[in-house]
């Protein structure tokens, strides 16, 4: 699942303003980090982060979020998620 940063603050207006600014800054840092590590870029990434976005294993591979999906646990022979 992908989603944007969330925050909770209470207090004086200055504290709230500061929290909003810092949360927006951290959101931009998150976007830059995801863009640098995955195939997700720009508008598509921001759309996925705008709400809780659940991805299938194939989508996670397609977007470069995971490298592969383990279908068999090593040495145990137990079947895993495909």
TL;DR?
The protein is mainly α. The chain has helices spanning 13-37, 42-49, 57-62. The protein has a single domain (1-82), classed as 2-enoyl-CoA Hydratase, Chain A, domain 1 (Alpha-Beta Complex).
Topology at a glance:
Elements: H1 13-37, H2 42-49, H3 57-62
At the fourth CATH level, what is the homologous superfamily?
2-enoyl-CoA Hydratase, Chain A, domain 1
| Rg for CA atoms | 18 Å
Number of domains: 1
Strand content: under 5%
In CATH, the topology is named 2-enoyl-CoA Hydratase, Chain A, domain 1
Give the total of beta strands.
Answer: 0
Number of helices: 3
Main sheet specs: none
* Rough outline: elongated
CATH class category label: Alpha Beta
- Would you tell me the overall average pLDDT? 90
Q: Give the assembly state of these chains.
A: single chain
Structural class: mainly alpha
What this model shows, in words?
This protein has 82 residues and is an all-alpha fold. It has one domain (1-82): 2-enoyl-CoA Hydratase, Chain A, domain 1. The chain is built from three helices and no strands. The protein has helices spanning 13-37, 42-49, 57-62. The longest helix is centred in the first third of the chain and has 25 residues, at 13-37. The two termini are 17 Å apart. The model has no long low-confidence stretch (mean pLDDT 90).
